TrEMBL record:
<dbReference type="GO" id="GO:0003677">
    <property type="term" value="F:DNA binding"/>
</dbReference>
<dbReference type="Pfam" id="PF03704">
    <property type="entry name" value="BTAD"/>
</dbReference>
<dbReference type="InterPro" id="IPR001867">
    <property type="entry name" value="OmpR/PhoB-type_DNA-bd"/>
</dbReference>
<feature type="domain" description="OmpR/PhoB-type">
    <location>
        <begin position="1"/>
        <end position="86"/>
    </location>
</feature>
<feature type="region of interest" description="Disordered">
    <location>
        <begin position="593"/>
        <end position="661"/>
    </location>
</feature>
<dbReference type="GO" id="GO:0043531">
    <property type="term" value="F:ADP binding"/>
</dbReference>
<keyword id="KW-0804">Transcription</keyword>
<dbReference type="InterPro" id="IPR011990">
    <property type="entry name" value="TPR-like_helical_dom_sf"/>
</dbReference>
<dbReference type="GO" id="GO:0006355">
    <property type="term" value="P:regulation of DNA-templated transcription"/>
</dbReference>
<dbReference type="InterPro" id="IPR005158">
    <property type="entry name" value="BTAD"/>
</dbReference>
<dbReference type="InterPro" id="IPR036388">
    <property type="entry name" value="WH-like_DNA-bd_sf"/>
</dbReference>
<dbReference type="GO" id="GO:0000160">
    <property type="term" value="P:phosphorelay signal transduction system"/>
</dbReference>
<dbReference type="InterPro" id="IPR027417">
    <property type="entry name" value="P-loop_NTPase"/>
</dbReference>
<keyword id="KW-0238">DNA-binding</keyword>
<dbReference type="InterPro" id="IPR051677">
    <property type="entry name" value="AfsR-DnrI-RedD_regulator"/>
</dbReference>
<dbReference type="InterPro" id="IPR016032">
    <property type="entry name" value="Sig_transdc_resp-reg_C-effctor"/>
</dbReference>
<comment type="similarity">
    <text>Belongs to the AfsR/DnrI/RedD regulatory family.</text>
</comment>
């Protein structure tokens, strides 16, 4: 039976994939390329092992030949080598060479049409790059390179014949792809110019010449050769080939100029539905103009063409690639497409616009305007006929385009992105490595262009696994290099947008490349970021909780910006150094609102920015406050956080300066600002450290600790503390190291890890002195107080209780001697909570009120409430906890509010108001689950369980059901199972059916 083989693409046998591992395929390809001639053993060993055969190569080669013979017939051993018995026409490369030779003979005989068809048949044998899956570079050099050159030459010769046959308009797309893949090949540019000229697209032909000249000058430093210059002159003089008589389009002919649809188009169902729905709303009444906008590479053009392919309007479909082309040049092409005779296109823009509007006024056209730069470029190109539809793609939303409707196209979701990768690379390969496929999708930023390139690379490399490609993409320094295939390149797409920006905006994008954060607000660089959003390089994320416009970008854009910064400005260090002081000062000001303090002066009042300077020391000097963001001194500080919601508006508050409502309104706004900027500031700590700005890195890490405590952001707390400690040590700053060790101890204490907290504080003691040493002593006492809690079965008091009391007394004495009122208030509260001393706690409460510190006041109130509850003074306990709740709610501190609700639930339970207890505990449970606070959520569940045991099934069900929607945030299956069990039990008692 006759077997056909293919090497013009991946190696194939009878239309299927060639058998065997890589070296077997190389061996078979070497035999096929020389068929039917024999190939010497030495040459086979050289190509199979790529010029480096091992000592055992000859014997191993015999094994390979034996294995190959079991799958491929006709391999014979001959003296000195091997051959494969096939006819030349059974191997596509030999058949290709024969067809090219025959086509050239037909051309020489004057048979132009037959010659063109012969070249077309020869070129149709190609399925990709020659020897695409053969790993032998020596074999590719010897055979693939000459074959590829013959392919290009045959293509140029066939195009030349097509032009002689008047087929210029048909080959334009093919020639554009050719010059894109081989921009230094002058003859390809000549054929493109001739084709455009023959199609009547004179301005595009001249533009192609300018593109060719610019490429040659920039890449080679050479001016165009004689053939290319002659082609330009023919366009300028109006000489040269024209379509045959009778081939000129009639004015009433129907045009369909859409590029081919993408065969593996994936997803975008919502966008396609929007186009069809919006286009149909005014289909009979007026022309409809739709703008698809989004970042580079998101697939706007592919979506527009795909959507347009499914829309059939009676008078045709026009297409124009805009880019930087002037509207007048595009109009010339559109008018010719509509049938305007040669020479009848007016020279002036206004006249062209009037003619275009006249020719479209009575037609229902679909016009696709791809890659629009701005509104001025688009307006003259809009058809006026009722029922016409214009689809515009642009990186900008073109906000000034009258009567246009816009749709922002983002990246694909994960399932769509995986499906697209599978459509390009092959469904079997993606199914075989689903996790690697998802890694590739994430590293490609879900961007269609990047996914298409990644899939194309996998097609060209059948020996690669998806995991191998994911590993290559994982290196940020090489990712943009990896995302390049032929004339497709993510870097090139981003570069178009970058080069189209004015110089100030280009500088701004480069400066943003200094940061690794996923989003940011304009204050970071003190510049308006909207121009970059209009260019599609940033995306608006809307207003954050502090009322700021936030902008984000795709990771590939960030990498490109960082690349440009490195190449044009020397890297991120200079930008970060310039902005470090402003970032530190703004963050320190917000921190001072959470923990007011002025080191060493004893003057620790809160200062509102519009009335006084920010609290704290001199610029760049960390405020050495002594307190924790919250929590009773005798136990771990509760994880507390700032609420979401609209930004604070002073006009909504009542009172004048000094009014508690105004003060807490400002404090709430500062907490919201910190919360909104958390991801940016956390990333900036690492950015500073990587740039060698160690002082800025450790100070920013220190300033952020109260935010992490208020919001229970323990992962961020751990990460920034580790970086900050490393930076402080690199800077040789002992006090900075001590401050961060103290913060690390607070973190361990909040997590209940008392031994780790004590170890961090002991490591900090030798680094500190004066008041900072007193603050460390106070923290160590808090840890010892935790360790002093009675354990089940214990009969003797723990020695840690006495140690804790001694630590509190020493710290209190040091603060009083130095006049540090904030430190004194903290020490009084710690000592009062440990001793359960009403007088000490009230004294600390008064101290916080004098300082203007509502968060400290709230914690003192909760300690008093707990003390009154333990002594069964229920009315006093309720009064304290309700006052505490009022402060928490004015400040927007949701987790401290939930902690107070637990105490309120205990008070209500002691009062016998079981329904109120369950309600408060259920509300607290919902907050704890939303913030991932497992320990306090368990306590809330215990209260609900107690209510259920007392037969308050109705209240228990309501509380549990309200929390179930948020309970997955805890990530603990055991806790979730307990909630489900309690709901089932409560419903059983209530007689409901589960």
């Amino acid at each position: 039976m006759r077997v056909r083989f293919g090497v013009l693409g991946p190696l194939r046998a009878d239309g299927g994939r060639a058998p065997g591992p890589a070296k077997h395929r190389t061996l078979l390809a070497a035999l096929l390329l020389s068929a039917p001639e024999q190939v010497p053993v030495e040459r086979l060993m050289s190509v199979v092992w790529d010029g480096r055969p091992p000592a055992s190569a000859e014997s191993v080669l015999r094994v390979y030949v034996s294995a190959l013979r079991k799958q491929v017939d006709g391999i014979r051993t001959v003296p000195g080598g091997y051959l494969i018995e096939v006819t030349p026409d059974d191997v596509d490369c030999h058949r290709f060479e024969r067809l090219v030779a025959a086509a050239r003979q037909a051309r020489a005989a004057g048979q132009v049409a037959e010659a063109a068809d012969g070249f077309r048949a020869a070129l149709g044998l190609w399925r990709g790059q020659a020897l695409a899956d053969i790993e032998s570079s020596s074999l590719r050099r010897a055979h693939a390179v000459p074959l590829e050159e013959l392919r290009l030459t045959a293509l140029e010769e066939r195009v030349e014949l097509d032009l002689r046959l008047g087929r210029g308009a048909e080959v334009i797309g093919e020639l554009r792809a050719l010059v894109g893949a081989h921009p230094l090949r002058e003859r390809a540019w000549v054929r493109l110019i001739e084709a455009l000229h023959q199609a009547g697209r004179r301005s595009e032909a001249l533009g192609a010449y300018q593109d060719a000249r610019r490429t040659l000058v920039e890449e080679l430093g050479l001016e165009p050769g004689a053939e290319l210059t002659a082609a330009q002159q023919r366009v300028l003089s109006g000489t040269g080939p024209r379509p045959p008589v009778g081939d000129v389009r009639r004015a009433d002919a129907v045009s369909d100029e859409l590029p081919p649809d993408v065969s593996d188009f994936t997803g975008r169902r919502q966008a396609l539905d929007w186009i069809r729905r919006t286009a149909g709303e005014q289909a009979q009444a007026a022309p409809v103009h739709l703008v698809l906008h989004g970042p580079p590479g998101c697939g706007k053009s592919a979506l527009a063409v795909h959507a347009a392919t499914g829309i059939d309007l009676p008078d045709g479909r026009l297409y124009a690639a805009l880019g930087a082309r002037p509207a007048g040049a595009v109009l010339e092409d559109l008018l010719r497409s509509l049938g305007c005779p040669d020479g009848a296109v007016p020279p002036a823009l206004d006249d062209r616009v009037r003619l275009y509007r006249t020719m479209t006024a009575r037609r229902r056209l679909l016009v696709v305007l791809d890659d629009a730069a701005d509104e001025a470029q688009v307006r003259p190109l809009l058809p006026t006929g009722p029922g016409s539809l214009t689809l515009v793609t642009s990186r900008s939303s073109l906000p000034g385009l009258e009567a246009a409707r816009t749709y922002e196209l983002g990246v694909l979701d994960e399932d769509e992105a995986v499906a697209m990768l599978a459509g390009v690379a092959g469904h079997e390969r993606v199914r075989a490595e689903p996790e690697a496929a998802r890694r590739i999708v994430r590293l490609c930023d879900h961007l269609p262009l990047a996914l298409r390139i990644a899939g194309s690379r996998l097609v060209r490399k059948p020996g690669w696994t998806l995991d191998h490609l994911a590993g290559r993409l994982g290196d940020e320094r090489r990712r943009l290099d990896e995302l390049s295939a032929g004339d497709l390149a993510v870097r090139g797409s981003l570069a178009l947008g970058y080069r189209g920006l004015p110089d100030p905006e280009r500088r701004l994008l480069r400066e943003l490349g200094a940061w690794s954060a996923p989003d940011f607000a304009s204050w970071v660089l003190g510049r308006d970021l909207e121009p970059l959003a209009e260019a599609g390089l940033l995306q608006s994320r809307g207003l954050d909780e502090a009322g700021q416009e936030r902008y984000g970008w795709h990771d590939l854009t960030r990498i490109y910006a960082a690349e440009r910064l490195s190449e044009e400005d020397g890297g991120p260090g200079g930008v970060l150094a310039v902005r470090a002081e402003a970032i530190l000062e703004r963050t320190r000001q917000a921190r001072a609102a959470l923990l007011p303090a002025e080191p060493g002066t004893g003057r620790t009042e809160v200062h509102r920015p519009e009335h006084d300077a920010p609290a704290g020391g001199p610029p760049g000097e960390p405020a050495l406050e002594s307190g924790s963001a919250g929590g009773p001194p005798g136990e771990p500080a509760p994880e507390s956080g700032s609420a979401g919601g609209p930004p604070w508006d002073p006009a909504l508050e009542t009172g004048s300066a000094g009014d508690p409502a105004l003060e807490t309104g400002w404090l709430r706004q500062e907490a919201r600002w910190l919360s909104a900027e958390r991801r940016f500031l956390v990333a900036t700590v690492d950015d500073f450290h990587r740039a060698g700005l160690y002082e800025a890195a450790w100070r920013l890490a220190f300033y952020l600790t109260p935010l992490f405590e208020l919001g229970a952001h323990h992962d961020d707390w751990h990460a920034t503390t580790a970086i900050g400690l490393d930076a402080a040590r690199a800077a040789g700053h002992r006090r900075g190291e001590a401050l961060l060790l103290r913060g690390l101890a607070d973190l361990h204490r909040a997590e209940g890890r008392t031994e780790a907290a004590a170890a961090a504080l002991r490591a900090a003691q030798p680094l500190a002195e004066g008041l900072e040493l007193a603050r460390i002593t106070l923290r160590l006492g808090l840890v010892q107080a935790l360790q002093a809690r009675p354990r089940p079965g214990a009969t003797q008091p723990s020695p840690q209780a006495a140690q804790a009391e001694q630590a509190f007394v020493r710290a209190l004495r040091a603060f009083e001697e130095a006049g540090d009122r904030r430190g004194r208030a903290d020490a009084l509260r710690a000592l009062g909570a440990l001793r359960q001393d009403d007088e000490l706690l009230r004294e600390s409460l008064a101290a916080y009120q004098e300082l203007g510190d509502p968060r400290g006041e709230a914690e003192a109130l909760l300690d008093l409430a707990r003390m009154h509850l333990a002594a069964c003074r229920l009315s006093q306990a309720r009064d304290c906890v309700e006052r505490r709740l009022g402060l928490n709610r004015r400040l927007g501190d949701r987790l401290p509010e939930a902690v107070a609700l637990l105490v309120l639930a205990e008070v209500a339970r002691a009062e016998g108001a079981l329904g109120a207890a369950v309600s408060a505990a259920g509300e607290a449970l919902e907050t704890f689950t939303r913030y991932g606070d497992r320990r306090n959520a368990a306590q809330a569940l215990q209260l609900v369980r107690a209510a259920l045991e007392c037969d308050d099934a109705d209240g228990a069900v309501d509380a549990l059901v309200s929390a179930m929607g948020e309970f997955d945030g805890l990530g603990g299956q055991e806790g979730k199972a307990e909630v489900v069990r309690l709901v089932q039990e409560a419903r059983r008692r209530r007689g409901q059916r589960i």
